[in-house]
Design a protein that fits this description.
Elements: H1 28-35, H2 62-73, E1 76-81, E2 87-93, E3 96-98, H3 120-123, H4 127-149
Antiparallel strand pairs: 1-2, 2-3
Length: about 150
């Protein structure tokens, strides 16, 4: 299999969507392709948005992306504690562990073992994060409807 993706765990991200709400999104790779067209400074965490660029499109997108992955594929969201005290979120679904936003860390190696479960209720208690999640979700639904109309 040629290497097309660079997000952590892409080779083993062999899970299927548990909802048909997002037409055309059947695999995490499909979702990554769609989000690559959607992620922007407006969906980036405010503390990082000034550094967001199209070349580093996954910067500041982790929690809202991980919870959207959970909506579409199920599973759990876990977090890696970062030096600044925030958590970097990723997904575990069955035996599949992947991180659609890992590219923001460049060559840094993250430790995906023994990390705490992350709850959307905690993350979305921050209104700005909940609003960014809703913006990302709405943009994905719009993207999917445009793709099916073609």
């Amino acid at each position: 299999m040629p290497e097309k993706y660079h997000f952590y765990g892409w080779e083993k991200a062999a899970v299927s969507a548990v909802t048909d709400l997002y037409a055309g999104i059947r695999t995490p790779q499909d979702l990554y392709d769609a989000l690559s067209e959607i992620w922007c400074a407006d969906t980036c965490a405010p503390r990082m948005s000034q550094n967001w660029t199209p070349e580093n499109k996954t910067l500041g997108q982790c929690s809202i992306t991980a919870f959207l992955v959970q909506d579409i594929f199920g599973g759990q969201v876990y977090g890696i504690l970062r030096p600044d005290g925030n958590y970097h979120c990723y997904n575990v679904i069955g035996d599949s562990l992947f991180d659609l936003t890992s590219e923001q860390f460049g060559k840094e190696t993250l430790d995906y073992t023994d990390n705490p479960l992350q709850l959307r209720e905690v993350h979305f208690a921050k209104e700005e994060k909940r609003l960014r999640y809703e913006r990302l979700k709405a943009a994905l639904l719009e993207f999917c409807s445009r793709q099916t109309a073609l």
